[in-house]
Description:
Radius of gyration: 45 Å
Distance between the termini: 89 Å
Order of helices and strands: EEHEEEHHHHHHHH
Shape: elongated
Number of helices: 9
Strand content: under 5%
Number of strands: 5
Helix content: 25-40%
Strand order of the largest sheet: 2-1-5
Amino acid sequence: MDDQECPRCKTTKYRKPTLKLMVNICGHPLCEGCVDLLFLKGTGNCYECNQPLRRGNFRVQLFDDSSVEKEVEIRKKLLKDYNKVEEDFNSLAEYNDYLEEIEEIVFNLCNNIDILETNNSLLSPFPDGAKDIVSVYASRMSENVTDLPALFSQPSQDLPKHFSSGIRIGSNLGLSVPAIVKPELGPLYKYEPTIKMIDGPDYPSWDDVRRGNYLKHVRTETVEEKAGGYVCAIATMRALNDAFAGLYHTNKRTSPAAVET
């Protein structure tokens, strides 16, 4: 319904994306602005068929065709009174005549044929007024209530669930699907100090570098570098590690136990 257009003010969905067409019992659409303008006092006449309308009866249009909107509204109101079922008649022919009468009333009201006679005939199925309507509703309610104990007394059955293709859920169909392998959990982590294979004395620690004279001839970091996480001790420690790692290097490798001793 992207090509919606108000037949009165010619406002389109393109120019006003929030456009909503409203319809009443006659089925002729109007936009919300025209409804507010024409029915400012609460009542008014339709711009096309001049039928008296009430502002409270306007609703949002669901179908593009106004005749369909009118027929849906007529059937909705008509079926509130013409609500008999096949069990209410003695024969199938009487029930078919009843349905044909309903369709004839709908056709006349939708096409504005014999409106007065058709409206007068609506009271003919109920000569006693609301008494018959209440009896029809009461009979239906009693039938529904009597069916409820029978439904509750039935044992609940767990029906097997199937896919839309008819395959039952849980059946492997002979396919060998490997089971999910759970990873084996190893022992808990235990910290062990790293053995340094430097074949000589250990290099200074961070505290030794900060307290000693190692940073005396090293460029101090700027404010920007310090904000980024860099300090001059990092470069100094890197240089000391490289120096001590190859200071006492020999082709003969020593065992970790010998280094510790």
